[in-house]
């Protein structure tokens, strides 16, 4: 296996690409009692239109297939995979987002047996007309639950405001109507397209034997030929925002808001995407973080509370910032924040250096937790970013970089507002 060692974090990651195209990464952590493995595919809710390798036609599937597939993968003819992990003393889970589906477990014993189970079940789908129909009712219930969640709705309403046609505006689980059109043939088509080892990655971390880990994976993964590139088809998204404001009334006691900013500098991954993401996050921390003057002002005036926060999502083909929380006057909060971004008085070198040191410390603490390492690795990997590039890229960011990024990204022209008001 190839080895990458980082002297500053004193950690190493070993890598091997198998003959079938699966990328395997192992990080040994001597003395740790917990082990963690995550098996992920580049297939998320955005991937509903594509040309599969070997096809000369476009396949378009209903919204929600990636999430539906994640649900179904845990079911086998003999029963539930969760029970098998539990019997081996492990805790298993999975998640689907806009770009990724991942299956994972954490354990303190029987690591290799659990790893074998993980590789086996993700490589062996079991779909029938009956179990697919049964799942529709379960997922429909989940969709209704999210539709009734004000925090979920204020977030997706913000994405609806930002985006005209890009699929990130759609709910990850789809709609009750879209999942009603899913059948086992659609699931198998997506499975064999996106769950091919060449489109997947497996990351394992803990006090584990590297050679034995690789052996278990090689013995249990599907022995198939590489399939070639999946051509994903996404619509051309206009630069401007779709709507300036989306308002909804729900059962809340205090209004909820998301002030969103559309990132128009997109179309690249790797170190450049990492650098951009860190510049935005540092700029946001300086502007509206808990130690900022703006946050203190908003809090002292009773305009925000402890729910106030921010987040930047930076992917290869899209990106956005969300600033939000509860407020008795969301529009006033928006105006104050927009004014602050125009004036840029929060941009000073001393604050920049302090926040940059904070981010360095935060990254180094990641290596104290096998879960944090694994989630960070997969999140960055799906953007073509190497985990070990994080510190070098962070160190090269300067004050001017952050000031220019704030100027280009956090401006009124690219902003939209989502508000949930109490039902009158």
From TrEMBL:
A Pfam family annotated for this UniProt entry: Peptidase_M16
Domain of life: Bacteria
Signal sequence residues: none
Gene Ontology MF terms in the entry: metal ion binding
Peptidase M16 N-terminal domain boundaries: 62-175
Domain Peptidase M16 C-terminal: 182-343
Protein name according to UniProt: Zn-dependent peptidase
Protein source organism: Caldanaerobacter subterraneus subsp. pacificus DSM 12653
Organism lineage: Bacteria, Bacillati, Bacillota, Clostridia, Thermoanaerobacterales
